[in-house]
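Sequence and structure are no longer studied apart. As an example, we show below a sequence and the tokens encoding its fold:
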Amino acid sequence: MQTPLSVLDFLHRAEQVYGDRVGIVDEPDQPAASWGEVTYRRTAELARAQAAGLDRLGVGPGERVAIVSHNSARLMTSLFGVSGHGRVLVPVNFRLKAEEVAYIVEQSGASVLLVDPELDEALAGIAVRHRFVLGAESDAQLYDFDREPVPYEVAESDTATINYTSGTTARPKGVQLTHRNLWLNAVLMGLHFGASDRDVYLHTLPMFHANGWGLPFALTGLGARHVVLRKVDGAEILRRVERHGVTFLSGAPAVAAMVLDAAAEWDGPVPGRDRVRMIVAGAPPPTSMVQRIESELGWEFMQIYGLTETSPLVTANRTRAEWDALPPAERAERLVRAGAPALGSQVRVDGQGEVLVRSNVVLEGYWQQPDATREAIRDGWFHTGDGGTLTDGYLSISDRKKDVIISGGENVSSIEVEDCLYGHPAVAEAAVIGVPDEKWGETVKALVVLREGCTADEAELIAHCKQRLAGYKAPTSVEIRDSLARTATGKLQKFRLREPYWQGRDRQVN
């Protein structure tokens, strides 16, 4: 017998086995009315009501529903109410500017747009058939508890979500992840990181990021408790860990750095010692951070490597029994690697040093971009664009083949920022690179050549970008130069531009 894998499987089990258990503790401090504590039975009722509401609106199977929201119970429920009932959820980065969100809504063909109240005014001009501002009023309009949703036969090959990611092009690409992709990724996350119904998970990771790395699905199916955190703050993370008995959280190295800074000022024992485990990803962390998480916080450090295109789990790294007796520094050197291939994933490095992946979690394709899909998946392997090495079965990421800067766990397309800079009348040439940053891992730096007779300073060019791009994409520094290193054919030699800033470092990522 073979039955189709569906993301709704996880909520079905939670409702059946843990129906009376509080499944979600919604963010109490948010502009929308908080849902408070929500049982798994109520979560399932809300998901069905949302699906029934979409039925009433005439939003049929396969149609796209975009949501731009900070972490919230409404966003998490939509993973089941939309994707689990035959539609396609498009979770959008809430940090994007209105024109960027408008592009995603148009390119995905979304017929419904759900907007966080904090973003209502900024996103007011986006054209879409149905638009709702998340809150009590939209709950009454969108959730239909009076009828059962139309039963759709969901195939595991159906697209469940389209997640937009910055790549080497100026415009983001829509990553089609199927029910099969998401189901297997969720199960693998739970398996590799020892999740159980005793876990209390704090959502420090944005749920729009590769669908919270699959943990909203995995931990729901296991009956764990979700504690929603709307905005990341180191001290608030420690307070939630203490208040809710948190055992599990995730985030980029920048999030870990915030927690470490807050712990240094914490009055009393750091909450969660010998109880919390933290998955770090988004950029390779320094070994000093690994040691500090284990010594100063007393939390278990774990790491994954992956991309939105891989759902995202490719490799996992967690301390092994063989490492228990090692000095902290030696154990950190092992843990700082991206990790060993997750179960079912094949990883290799080609002759050019690029990391290639073959796995059931690799994307179906880029939404309506067949050429980009063919470029990314060749000869049965997904080309990550990342450079790395494999030693004793463990992958280490050394640099990026594609010009993507990862700052605080967010992907920034250098080409997109360069395009923005070229929109300034004084800019003749622009090259955008990632440079090391203690807080964010990497930060965006622009190298600019001005047009003859024109003037512009660093502050003016940064302000120009901030007006047109999400804040995290804007350069944090601008250097005016007479010329930029190029090949004989005129191509920018970014590796030469990066070299001075990365001297003395083993890897071209931070």
About this structure: DSSP finds 15 helices and 26 strands in the chain. The chain has a mean pLDDT of 94. The radius of gyration is 23 Å.
